[in-house]
Structures are given as C-alpha cells and as structure tokens.
Write a structure and sequence with these properties.
With about 850 residues, the protein is an alpha/beta fold. It contains 23 helices and 31 strands. An 8-stranded mixed sheet has the order 12-11-13-14-15-20-21-22, with helices on both faces. A hairpin with an 8-residue loop joins strand 21 and strand 22. The longest helix has about 35 residues.
Length: about 850
C-alpha cells in the first residue's frame, strides 16, 4: 500500500521538477534589462530613431523606501510647460527634416521622448532604455545579449548634473548626446564624456564673461550664490578663479539646493543681511532662484544688484514670479536672440501631443486651461469641465511665452546637426543609401566635423570639446509701467574676439536696482587716488585695504596703484605725489646774492691789486719799491690778480672745461704767488747775511736766481697738474645723494691723489715760507718785510686749515662758496699784509720813503 501509494506522489514531484527546469530553460533563452519598463511619453516610428530626454515635470514625490519591498515607480509632480516646449522644438525640427527634399530624402526620422522629472536616477534608466530598449533578446543569437542601439542620437538633458549621468552611461556606446542647456564646463572633458556635445556655450566662457562684466562696472566686492549641483559649483569655481585674477573679491559664496531644509535658507538670508557688498552674482537655476526670491521678499531685502546667467536672466516666467521686484535692474548673460520661422505656430499646435499620448495630453491640457476633462482620473475639485478643443489664442502662460526661443533654437540646431551627419554618412543626393549600416560612433564622428547654416543663417559647428562658439547678449531687466519686465539687450560678449574687444557694454541704456541710472557701488574699500598706494588690511581679502601716501621721491599716477614708483634720479615727486618733476639743479650762480657778493669781492680784489700795481709802477723809482725787489713785487701782484680771478671759475654751472680750469688755475696761481713770497723772504734773509763782514751770499741769490726759483717752484706744480689732467682729470658731476629733492652740480676730483698733491705742494711751500719769514721777523732793518710776510703766511695757513672742516661740512653750493671765500681771504691777506703798509708809506708817509731810512739800522728788539 505504501509503495503503491508512493508512485503517484513521486510522479507529481517529477512533473514539478520538469516544469521548473523548463521555466529555468526559458529564462536562460532571453536577455532583459533589469528594472521597471520605461515607456516614452511621446514617440513616433521612423527609419532612423532619435531619443529625447526632457523634464515634463519639474519635481517628483519624495518616498521613503523600507528596503523590504520593491520600490514603486517614480511619481512625477508639477507639470513643467518648459519641458513641453523643448519637446515641441525637437518635434518641429524632425517634422521639417521629414518634409524636406534636400536633407535626408526618402528617410524618415522617428523619436522616443521621455520625461525624467528632474530625477538623475530616472535619467540613467531612460538612457539605458534608449540605448538597449525594453524588448527581450534570445541568447541563441550570434552575439548573445547584444543588439544595435535603439536610437542613433539623444537630445537633452536640460541640466548639467543629469547630462553628466546620462553621458557617463551612454558614453561607452558612443551614442551622441546633444544638450541644449547643460553649460557646465566639466562636460567638455572628452576623457569622461566622449559622446557629449552641446549647442549652448560652455560655462568656461560664461564664467569668465561674468567676471569681466563685474570688473567692467568696478564691482570688486561681491557676494555669490550658486545651485549646489555640478552647474552651480563648477560655474562658480571658474568665476571665482577669474575674478581673483581680475582683482575681484567674494565677500561670501554660498550654495543652495531646492531640497535643502529651511535652516539652510535662513543661514543664507542672515549672511546677505550682514554683508556690505551690494552686488550678488548667481549661478542658479530658475527653481532655486524662485525659492531665494521668496525668502528675500519675506525679509524685505531689496535693492541688491543681481548678476545672472543664461539659466534665468531672459526667462519671462522667472520675471513674472518676481512679484516683489527683487530682481529689478538685474543684468546678466543670455544666449543671443534667435528666430526660427514657423516654430512658434508649430509649438502652439498641440494636436500631435493628443495623438501621441493621451495620458500626458490629459494632464497637460487640464493644467494649461485649469479644467478637468471628462475621461480624466484627476482628483482635482472645483474645476470647470473642458472638452479638449479649447482655443489657445487667449491663453497667457509659460507655454505660450516664447522668451526662450534661443534655447528652442539650440534644440533645433542639435536635431539638424544629427540630420546633416546622417545625410553625409548615407551619401544622400536625390536619394539616400539605405544599405549603409549605421553606427553611433560613426555618427558621432560626423557630427563633430559638420559645418552648416540653418535656414535663418546661423552657423553650426563644434570645436574639439564638442562646444559651439561662445557668444552672449548682455540682458538688463527693465520694469515697464504695467509691471512687466522688459529684457533689454545692453551689450555683447564674443569670446572669439581679442581679449580687449570681447566685452562691449552700453552703460547709458542700463537701468540698475531700485530704478537707478547710476552704476551701484560695491567695493570693500574706496579707490586709492593717484599719489597713494594700497596697503592690505591684516586678515582681510586683497580688496580691503588702506590708502597710504607715497613716500618722498615716489609717485603713483593711476587709481588703485599697488605700489609707488620711484622717480628717476634727476626727478622728484611733486606735492601731490602723482608726477615726477625735474629736480632743481643747484650750483653757485652769478644771479643769486651769494654768487654776486663773491663775484664782487673777487673783482674788488682784482681792482685793488691793480691799484697797488699802479702805485708801485708810479713810484717804482722810490727806495721802498726798489728795496723790495720790484720785479718779484710786480710778479706777486700779477699772481694775486690771477688768484682773485681764478675764484670766478668756481661760479656758474660746472662744465668739463671749467672743472679742469678751476682746480689747475687755483693750484698754479697760488704756487706762483707763494713762490714769489718765498723769494721775497729769502731775499730778506740773504740781504741780512750780506751785511755781515766777508759775506758774498747775494751773488748766489741775485735777481736771476730769484726768477729761476719762482719758475722752478711753479713748474713743479704745472707738472703735477698736467699729470692729474692726463691720468684722471676733474669732471662735472651730478650729486644726487646730498639732497633728495635737488641735484648738486659740482666738479668731481677725478684723481683724489692729484688733488691732494696740488694742495699738499701749496701747503708745503706755504709752511716753508712761513718758517723762513718767522726766522727773519726780528732782523734789525728799519723796514723789515719779513714781519709782514710772517703775518700774511699766518693768515694764509689759518684760512686753509679752517677751510678743510668748513668745506667738508658745507652742503651743496655752500661748499663751493667756502672754497671761494678761502681763496679770496688768503689772497686779500697776502695783498693787505705785504703791500698795503708800503702803499701807506708811499702815499701818506713819503718822508720815510728814503734810501737812508731803508738802509738804516735800529736797535734790535728783544724777543
């Protein structure tokens, strides 16, 4: 029984085992993409398929997964008309190409357009669906679990972060992803995103353009707010780097994302309240900007000058949401204006939406007209019923607003770029070669190399990074009387031009924050005027500084100078320290009082010497003249005349000849003068010796010997002077060290040895003369000339000894005056001491001017 009963049980178990095996085998025969099935919101079959990734909804419901059950599909909320506009722009381009006989004749383009609801994870799943599809594939094919790409290119995504995720997924398959609005510079990296291209300029250029725009208006102290995603973070990082190079400082830089808690927003509000900058630079999406505007209006924070990017600066929907006029006067960069004939009419014709997907059309139509269709499952209450045939003519909302036509044009150009690449690959002329096996990598290569013009005349091409040429319009928000913001172009930025011509702004047409026509001021420190330089404040950014006056001899002739520039040695700073003026050249001139007095003294001495010479010549036969060696006397008077006149060579602007003449003339004339005095002294001594019994000493020092001695002493000085002038002569010299604000024009000595040799030789003769005269001072002559020579030499030596410290300590031209005074004083001392007593006797005491008186001997005087 038991065995008979066990057979049916065993049979049933075996049947179950076979069923399990068959099911397992059927599972092994197919390949499928894991996860939920993704269906396009809009689709149409064609010979060649294109993909589209847009945001028909702006957000999705936040769900809390328990990880116990499979997560439910993403539930999208907040219908976004902009996403529909982008999709319509793509459909318009496809329809225009399909109806064209010139581009892809005989080939129809189809499409699959998905809604990713602003979700990056959904965007990745959609990208996989576009690449592989959702159908099952048998594993018995030649290449197991492989298939051609479902689409040959993908249009989208709108934002940078989702574009990065999608480009990462489809990049290995080389499927071209052409974005119309993802501007992050990071997407230009072809090692990470090899198949990404875009028809909007990279933020690499926009960030630099914004920095130049801020610098153009003199704003060096600004705040910065960015969206906490790849677009905001990368864009702001590039802006910050460029701003620092241009001398712009960020007082604060904060990030924000739409899902951040309220505490984060409150912290940003507090930072803005505490800031001193009046300009806010933004890298924000329209969604984040709206949330910030809302909170700013609650705190009544108005009057800031906003600087924006293409993400919102020309978006009329954003302007319509600014009910508190927070952004009035905003300025920023926008894609250059565009017009595509026929696009507006096509986009407002929503019948294709109705035929493509009834579900999405229902939600779209109900939101557009704020009504409820009969077949709708909507839970909305208190809404009027609509038929689905309402007229769009009178509707005014973001769907009928065409302010983003430049962005629509970017989608249009992206579709045409793919079409031109296909046209080239399929060798289309009148017909296309349908037998060509399409490969996304081949299409990608052709897209990178295409160049064409749209029907409106716009050039379309991509650089090596997959970016188009960077051109921006500078847009200014100007409120009108009816409260609507007018987007006024006030300039252009073209990155293809030279650096100094890239930015062109019309300042006079700009309306600033609070409806002002004056450019707002936003600096940490006021500009430093010319004559000052910046000095950084400790612990603060470089834009915060003090203005310090330039030091003497330094200037700054520009505003906000970092350093002061030292003037050339011949120049000096003016009182305002903003210009170098030529230094006053100081030298002893004839025009000034001191020079005139010294000149008068020199000429007076010359005249006095001439008068004495005349008296001596007039009374040359008198005993007193003849007794004192008249020839030496006249030679001494001549040398004194030269001494007085050589002082004139020290007055006036020094020149090469005057420098050589003044020192050599001074040296030679004084040696000649002292040689004569020395000769007269020796004559006195020899005359006394000749009176002694049996002395014939005078025959060794007669008139001829006296003349030869004078000539010999003088020739030695002449030789010294010639050697000095030959080896290293004196030369005119500009002395900048004596005074900071003056140039002392003086004569450099050239060879110091030559100068001191000249002075030393004069000093040697003077000391010798003084010594001999001192010995002869008490000789028993009635008229002992040695006493007067001693006194004159005493004056001479005293003058020149005191001259040395006075000369060294006298500044500038006063040193020259001291030297002239020493020459004149010593010359007057010789003239007065030696000749005036004799002139006194000749003119006033003629009774003593007798031979008897001259030869008479008096009693010796005790010492």
């Amino acid at each position: 029984m038991m065995s008979t009963q066990s057979w049916p049980e065993k049979g049933w178990a075996l049947l179950q085992l076979l069923l399990v095996a068959s099911f397992s085998q059927s599972e092994e025969l197919v390949c499928r993409r894991r996860g939920d099935h993704e269906s396009p919101q809009l689709s149409k079959d064609g010979d060649i398929m294109l993909g589209g990734v847009f945001n028909f909804h702006s957000t999705f419901k936040d769900r809390r997964d328990t990880y116990m059950d499979k997560p439910l599909p993403l539930q999208c909320t907040n219908l976004n008309f902009r996403g529909f506009q982008f999709a319509q722009a793509m459909l318009f381009a496809i329809e225009e190409i399909n109806n064209s006989t010139d581009l892809l004749p005989g080939i129809s383009l189809g499409y699959k357009i998905y809604d990713v609801c602003g979700s990056i994870s959904r965007g990745v799943r959609v990208a996989l669906a576009l690449a592989n599809g959702n159908k099952l594939i048998s594993s018995h094919s030649v290449a197991p679990c492989t298939r051609p790409a479902q689409v040959q290119a993908v249009m989208g995504e709108t934002s940078s972060s989702p574009s990065m995720a999608i480009a990462t997924v489809i990049g290995p398959f080389h499927i071209p992803l052409i974005s119309h609005f993802a501007t992050c510079a990071c997407l230009s990296d072809k090692t990470k995103y090899p198949s990404f291209l875009r028809t909007i300029p990279s933020d690499y250029y926009q960030s630099r353009a914004l920095a130049q725009l801020v610098k153009h208006f003199g704003w060096t102290w600004v705040g910065a707010i960015r969206t906490n995603d790849d677009y905001g973070n990368n864009g702001m990082a590039t802006f910050t780097e460029t701003a620092q190079q241009l001398g712009i400082c960020l007082e604060y830089s904060v990030s924000f994302f739409r899902t951040d808690p309220p505490e984060k927003m409150q912290k940003i509000i507090d930072i803005i309240k505490a800031s001193t900058s009046n300009v806010i630079v933004t890298f924000l999406s329209a969604t984040e900007l709206y949330l910030i505007m809302n909170d700013l209006s609650l705190h009544n924070l108005t009057g800031y000058q906003w600087v924006g990017t293409e993400a919102w600066i020309s978006d009329s929907h954003t302007a319509a949401m600014d009910r508190h006029h927070i952004l009035d006067g905003a300025i920023g960069l926008s894609i250059t204006r565009a017009h595509v004939s026929g696009m507006r009419e096509f986009m407002l014709d929503v019948k294709p939406l109705n035929s493509s997907s009834n579900e999405i059309f229902t939600e779209f139509w109900e939101t557009l007209f704020s009504c409820k269709l009969k077949q709708s499952q909507s839970s909305a209450v208190n809404q009027s019923e609509c038929t689905g045939h309402e007229d769009l003519t009178g509707v005014q909302n973001s769907f009928t607003d065409m302010s983003l036509m430049p962005i629509f044009n970017n989608i249009y150009k992206g579709v045409y770029a793919v079409a031109h690449a296909l046209h080239s690959i399929l060798s289309c002329n009148k017909t296309c070669n349908n037998k060509v096996q399409l490969d996304p990598f081949l299409i990608l290569q052709h897209i990178r190399n295409i160049w064409f013009k749209t029907k409106e005349g716009d050039e379309v091409y991509f650089n090596e990074n997959g970016d188009p040429p960077a051109k921006y319009e500078i847009i200014n928000w100007q409120p009108t009387e009816n409260g609507i913001v007018d987007f006024v172009p006030v300039g252009l930025y073209d990155a293809s031009l030279p650096a100094d011509k890239q930015l062109n702004v019309h300042n006079k047409t700009i309306i600033w924050a609070q409806n002002s026509k004056e450019v707002p001021l936003s600096v940490c420190s006021e500009k430093c005027p010319p004559g000052t330089h910046k000095a950084l404040q400790k612990g603060k950014p470089v834009c915060c500084y003090d203005c310090l006056r330039c030091a003497n001899g330094e200037i700054s002739n520009i505003t906000d100078s970092i350093t002061c520039v030292r003037c050339d040695p011949e120049f000096w700073s003016n009182e305002r320290r903003d210009a170098c003026v030529k230094k006053e050249a100081e030298f002893l001139s004839y025009e000034e009082i001191m020079g005139a007095l010294l000149t008068a003294a020199s000429l007076s001495g010359t005249c006095l010497t001439a008068v004495v010479a005349f008296i001596f010549f007039r009374y040359r036969q008198t005993p007193i003249v003849r007794a004192n060696n008249s020839e030496l006397s006249f030679l001494l008077l001549f040398s004194l005349t030269l001494c007085f006149l050589c002082s004139l060579t020290f007055i006036g602007r020094p020149s090469e000849w005057s420098c050589m003449l003044r020192h050599t003339a001074f040296g030679i004339t004084f040696v000649l003068c002292i040689s004569c005095v020395l000769g007269k002294t020796i004559v006195v001594l020899m005359a006394f010796r000749a009176t002694l019994p049996g002395s014939n000493v005078m025959k060794w020092f007669g008139p001829a010997q006296q003349k030869l001695s004078v000539l010999g002493f003088t020739l030695v000085q002449v030789v010294i002077c010639i050697l000095w002038l030959t080896i290293s002569p004196p030369f005119p010299f500009k002395n900048f060290k004596e005074f900071q604000d003056k140039i002392i024009l003086e004569c450099a000595l050239g060879s110091a040895v030559g100068f001191w040799a000249v002075l030393g030789y004069i000093g040697l003769l003077a000391m010798l003369c003084f010594f001999l005269a001192f010995l002869a001072r008490k000789l028993p002559d009635s008229f002992n000339e040695a006493k007067f020579i001693t006194f004159s030499m005493l004056i001479f030596c005293a003058v020149w000894i005191t001259f040395i410290p006075a000369y060294v300590s006298s500044p500038g031209k006063f040193s020259v005056a001291v030297e002239i005074f020493a020459i004149l004083a010593s010359s007057f001392g010789l003239l007065i001491c030696i000749f005036i007593p004799k002139c006194y006797i000749i003119l006033l005491k003629p009774e003593k001017n007798t031979k008897k008186n001259m030869m008479g001997k008096g009693e010796p005087k005790s010492s």
